[in-house]
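Continuing the series of single-chain predictions for the mutant panel. This is the parent chain; the variants come on the following pages.
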Amino acid sequence: AKFSILQPGTEILPHCGPSNARLRAHLAVSHGGGASIRVGDRAPVSWVPGEALVLDDSFEHAVAHDGDEDRYVLFAILKHPDLA
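Parent structure:
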């Protein structure tokens, strides 16, 4: 697990993980609004402090931060429970 700090005006370009054997869990620690993540072709969603967001790392995902405060997220890589 590690922390991800994203400053306002920052963008993380579309990317994906190497396989579907892992999931990525995000726990928003501090988020003043304006940051969102898009996974695949779904509409972007925002983090909610204290709530976890879990995604399949093999799907393309991208992040944009248009807010005024840094976004702090604790994230961990987990083994996909549906795979041997």
